[in-house]
Every structure is written in structure tokens, then in C-alpha cells.
Design a protein that fits this description.
Order of helices and strands: HHEHEHEHEEHEEHEHEEEHEHHHH
CATH topology of the largest domain: TIM Barrel
Strand content: 5-15%
Structural class: alpha/beta
CATH superfamily of the largest domain: Divalent-metal-dependent TIM barrel enzymes
Mean pLDDT: 96
Helix content: 40-55%
Largest sheet: 8 strands, parallel
Bound molecules: L-rhamnitol, zinc ion
Shape: globular
Low-confidence stretches: none
């Protein structure tokens, strides 16, 4: 597409929206302020850079063996550089603790400090990105039996509590170094494959462990704590200690962020409707935007109704500042840079569509005219948002339409295929 074509299509689209009372420029301005936190773990199949790290387990499974996965922090950063050049706007990177750089030494999870992330901080600073963080409660000998913060073994709990404490400190160091608040998200795999006799004790231990992790006050300007529930995992089908109800109650009572992962509920249960409910009682939340397919919770994010429903809840209510948007999926069966790019562009495109239709959806409802509400909701589906999206990409100097794919293919030939 030529610059002129993009421009002309945009001008027509803007006019069309204006006839419906939609201010396209305003929507684009808002979109440009919304960061998406890219999950580092899509780049290397949730591998991490620990010397003596265990194999991926604890309910997390990555399938596929597409060539070219990042094997070092340098490769992962190079892949992210390319991804970020294909995505409009300024974003964030979400790191897991086991992506630290340990210089070939064995640094256990209870020994990590922000020093191990200094290259990540420098890279983020150079690129104007914010950083988010996650303690890593999996792929470790002390998590091999599936129990971390809920372990009946006090020494094991202590080890993982220390990991959590250090992770928050690293989050605060990110916040300080970059001048952008870090969200540190706790997810643990703990649960049972089969029906437990005692559902209470693990949850009591989890609450106690979390309280120990969060004991030290940290300025919310530097770091915000989030907790992530899950209905079940592979190998923890019958019971997960950190369930939705557990963490919802925990977050409300301890004033923490709740993390809503789109793949963590019953197969037909979406997270969109949970957003306004939870934000009635919590100032902020974190999203892990993902796509569940049957028993897998982590397929690449596509532009489907679930994603649009999430974006609408953010746009229609002006929740851009209260909802931290992160991605969480891993696909090793396709080009990993493409997987990042597809999911991130889709998240942004969904937000744009939602921002553009917000005034339309409101009008009928405010007048109590639900006929108009439904009629305009449906008409919105064929409005020319594609032309607005193309223009936005061009104005942000990133490839328009499918042009990003050629860049990924070139990178695959020149870089990824040589790994
Ligand atoms: C697992 C959780 C968690 C992980 C990452 C790697 O079910 O969704 O967020 O995907 O921490
Ligand atoms: Zn998640």
C-alpha cells in the first residue's frame, strides 16, 4: 500500500466515523498511551537462562519445535527488538525471574538481586520501555513435587518466600531505574492431580507465605504486587490452592492487584465481565491476555470476540490507567517473533476497535433505547476501523498490514535459521 492510499482511506474512514459522532483522532491519541506488556517467555518456550534450571513443568507445557528459539539473553533481546519495531506504540517487557543473567554461576532463586537484571534494565532504558516482573515458582528442583508456597515443608516454604521477597525488590529496582512502575505478579502452580482430603491447609499456608512475602512496604510508585489465580493446571486438575476465590479475597483484603488470565477459567468463561466487578473493589488489576483452546490456556492471542470483549471493558469505562495489560501465551510451533507480533498487534487492534465504537454503544443505552444500542453495536462491526489501524501503524513508523511478515521472514532467513 502506498502512503497516499493509506492516507486517503483514513480520511474517508475518519469522515464516516465523524457522521456517527466518533472522534477518530481522540481514539488514536488514547491508544498511543496504552502500553502492552510483552511476555519475554514467548521467545524461548519458557526456558529461562538459569544454569541448573530444571525442565519446564508444574503444569506449564509448550508444544512445537519451530527452529530459531532464543538461547541467550542477547538473542532474546534481538528478537524483542524486531518485534517491537513491528508493533505501534511504546510498550513494556514482562520478565520472569529465571531470565536473569547469572554469568555461568549457579545463583539459586533465593539469591537473585537486581544486579542479575542490569542488562535488561539498560536495554529497557535505551528503548524507553517499562519492565514488569514475576517470581519463577516452577522449573526448579524445589518445585518438582508441585508445591512451593504451600509446601508442608517449612524449609521449602522459606526458600520460596525469600524468592518472592527478592522478586518484589527487583521489581522496585526496575521501577526506580526506569521511572515507570513495575507490576510484580505471583503465580504458583501448587495443587493436586486428584481429590485432596484437606483443601484448607494448603490455602492457609499460601495466605501465610504471601503475607510474609508482602510484609515489607514498597512504594506503589516503584512496584505493585499482583496475584494470579487459576482453576486448574496439567497435573493439578482436581485442586489448585491459588484459586480464583482465594486470590480475589486475598487481593481485596490485602489491597493487591488481582491478575485475570483469560485462559484460567472454565472453557466458556470469559474474563471481560470480571473486570468491572473486580474494579469496584480494587483500584487496579493486571490482565494476562491469552487464548484458551480446550485444555490449553496459552494459545496465541487472535482477534476474536473474547479479546474484543476485554478491550471494550477497558475502552468503554476508561479503565486504561487501572488495567495493566500483559500478554501470556507460548507457541513453539510457529515463528516466535511472529507469535509475539500477532498477539500484540491484535491486542492493540482490539483496543482501537473498542475505542472507536465506545460512543456508539453508549448512546442508545443512556437514552434507555436498547433497540438503538443493539443496532449500532452491530453496525459498528463493519465500520472502517481497518483504515484507521493502517494509518495508525504508518504514523507510528511500523509496517502497515501484512508487511510486517516480510520483515519476520527476512529475519528468519538471516538470523533465526542460523541458530
Ligand atoms: C500459568 C500462568 C502464569 C505463567 C507465566 C509463565 O498458568 O498463566 O502467568 O503463564 O508465569
Ligand atoms: Zn498467566
Amino acid at each position: 500500500m502506498t502512503h497516499n492510499n493509506i492516507e486517503q482511506a483514513f480520511v474517508l474512514a475518519r469522515e464516516r466515523y465523524a457522521t456517527l459522532g466518533v472522534d477518530v483522532d481522540h481514539a488514536l491519541k488514547t491508544l498511543a498511551t496504552i502500553p502492552v506488556s510483552l511476555h519475554c517467555w514467548q521467545g524461548d518456550d519458557v526456558g529461562g537462562f538459569e544454569n541448573a534450571g530444571g525442565a519446564l513443568g508444574n503444569g506449564l507445557a509448550v508444544t512445537g519445535n519451530y527452529p530459531g528459539k532464543a538461547r541467550t539473553p542477547e538473542e532474546l533481546r534481538a528478537d524483542l527488538d524486531l518485534t517491537l519495531s513491528l508493533v505501534p506504540g511504546k510498550h513494556r517487557l514482562n520478565l520472569h525471574a529465571f531470565y536473569g543473567e547469572f554469568g555461568g554461576k549457579k545463583v539459586d532463586r533465593d539469591e537473585i538481586t537486581s544486579e542479575h537484571f542490569k542488562n535488561w534494565i539498560a536495554w529497557a532504558k535505551k528503548n524507553g520501555l517499562g519492565l514488569d516482573f514475576n517470581p519463577t515458582y516452577f522449573s526448579h528442583p524445589k518445585a518438582a513435587d508441585g508445591f512451593t508456597l504451600t509446601s508442608p515443608d517449612k524449609a521449602v516454604r522459606k526458600f520460596w518466600i525469600e524468592h518472592g521477597i527478592r522478586s518484589r525488590e527487583i521489581g522496585a529496582a526496575f521501577g526506580k531505574a526506569l521511572g515507570k512502575t513495575c507490576v510484580t505478579n505471583v503465580w504458583i502452580p501448587d495443587g493436586y492431580k486428584d481429590t485432596p482430603a484437606d483443601r484448607v491447609a494448603p490455602r492457609a499456608r499460601l495466605a501465610e507465605s504471601l503475607d510474609a512475602i508482602f510484609k515489607k512496604p514498597i512504594s506503589p510508585k516503584l512496584n505493585l504486587d499482583a496475584v494470579e489465580p487459576k482453576l486448574f493446571g496439567i497435573g493439578s486438575e482436581s485442586y489448585v490452592a491459588g484459586s480464583h476465590e482465594f486470590y480475589l479475597a486475598y487481593a481485596v483484603s490485602r489491597k493487591k492487584l488481582l491478575t485475570l488470565d483469560a485462559g484460567h477459567y472454565h472453557p466458556t468463561e470469559g474474563i471481560a465481565d470480571k473486570i468491572s466487578s473486580v474494579l469496584e473493589f480494587l483500584p487496579e488489576i493486571l490482565l494476562h491476555v491469552s487464548r484458551g483452546v480446550r485444555w490449553d490456556s496459552d494459545h496465541v492471542v487472535i482477534l476474536n470476540d473474547d479479546l474484543l470483549a476485554i478491550a471494550r471493558e477497558i475502552a468503554v469505562n476508561g479503565f486504561e490507567k487501572r488495567v495493566h495489560i500483559g500478554l501470556d501465551y507460548f507457541d513453539a510451533s510457529i515463528n516466535r517473533v511472529a507469535a509475539w507480533t500477532i498477539g500484540t498487534r491484535n491486542m492493540l487492534r482490539a483496543l482501537l476497535i473498542a475505542l472507536l465504537e465506545t460512543p456508539l454503544i453508549r448512546t442508545g443505552e443512556l437514552a434507555g433505547d436498547f433497540t438503538t444500542r443493539l443496532a449500532l453495536q452491530e453496525e459498528a462491526k463493519s465500520l472502517p476501523f481497518g483504515a484507521v489501524w493502517d494509518y495508525y501503524c504508518e504514523s507510528q513508523s511500523v509496517p502497515v498490514g501484512e508487511a510486517w511478515l516480510a520483515e519476520v521472514k527476512r529475519y528468519e532467513t538471516e538470523v533465526l535459521s542460523k541458530r
